[in-house]
Amino acid sequence: MRRYIPSSTALKCFEASVRHLSFTRAAQELHLTQSAVSRQIRNLEEFLSRDLFIRLNKRLVLTSTGAAYYKEVVPLLDSMENASLRMLHREDEKTTLTISSLPTLASFWLMPRLAEFQKQHPQFQIKVRSLDDAAKIDHESIDIILHYGGDHWPRAVSHHLLDEKVIAVCSPNLLGKRDADTMAPESVMDYPLLHLSSRINAWPDWMVAQGMESGSFAGPSFAHFHMLLEAAKHHMGVAILPTIIAEQSLLNGELIAPFGAAVDTPHEYLLSYPADKADLEQVVTFRDWMLNFH
């Protein structure tokens, strides 16, 4: 059955002409001549048996019919463009693996490992999303969840990923002329203490692990680990950070740990996935690879 649809060229010329209210400027945008655009509009008007523009000397005025048609046509053009873009980006031969992870876990732990996984398993198209709110997890669209222990989801299978260790770190400049090698855990009280707002027990727990008596915990507080890390780098004070976050900055000398070795916390990081996806190739492959990565 023949569809009663005008040419796409005519529709593109119409859309551009409405936006510019000028055949000349529409032609420049579409890399056509002014006469070609004018001809396309005339063909469209004949096709619809309606005037879409009123031509007043060198000015264009959109008719009410033209305005109504424009309102209906533009969403259709947008949908056609989006569908085409999706096809251009589609990789039919690949299976998608969608991972939702805590932002800090993804940035400091997952990314250094993900490149190697992709190299070994190029058949998967990887998508990484930020796990900001457990309540908003869409089990239909997510294959793997990397998260902090204690957060569990119904109908999910979970595996221990790694234990959490934390360490007290600061910028070398914070110590001034003091020798980092001679510092004792108690020396931390000589400096401002930096806090993560969601972990109010971080400093008290660290002090207990060091055999110290609790003191004053006054100091700046930050909403995210990224902020806390940067504050420590910029000499604002001493921060308690998970070793997976502090590791790279300790290796490159941006941070030092003069107040003692890392200590264990009762927390862990988990790898989870919906139970109904337990047999999916991409889930099984990623799970096995990640749990055995060294």
UniProtKB/TrEMBL annotation:
<dbReference type="Pfam" id="PF03466">
    <property type="entry name" value="LysR_substrate"/>
</dbReference>
<feature type="domain" description="HTH lysR-type">
    <location>
        <begin position="6"/>
        <end position="63"/>
    </location>
</feature>
<dbReference type="InterPro" id="IPR036390">
    <property type="entry name" value="WH_DNA-bd_sf"/>
</dbReference>
<keyword id="KW-0804">Transcription</keyword>
<dbReference type="GO" id="GO:0043565">
    <property type="term" value="F:sequence-specific DNA binding"/>
</dbReference>
<dbReference type="InterPro" id="IPR036388">
    <property type="entry name" value="WH-like_DNA-bd_sf"/>
</dbReference>
<keyword id="KW-0805">Transcription regulation</keyword>
<dbReference type="InterPro" id="IPR000847">
    <property type="entry name" value="LysR_HTH_N"/>
</dbReference>
<protein>
    <submittedName>
        <fullName>LysR family transcriptional regulator</fullName>
    </submittedName>
</protein>
<dbReference type="GO" id="GO:0006351">
    <property type="term" value="P:DNA-templated transcription"/>
</dbReference>
<dbReference type="Pfam" id="PF00126">
    <property type="entry name" value="HTH_1"/>
</dbReference>
<dbReference type="InterPro" id="IPR005119">
    <property type="entry name" value="LysR_subst-bd"/>
</dbReference>
<dbReference type="InterPro" id="IPR058163">
    <property type="entry name" value="LysR-type_TF_proteobact-type"/>
</dbReference>
<keyword id="KW-0238">DNA-binding</keyword>
<dbReference type="GO" id="GO:0003700">
    <property type="term" value="F:DNA-binding transcription factor activity"/>
</dbReference>
<comment type="similarity">
    <text>Belongs to the LysR transcriptional regulatory family.</text>
</comment>
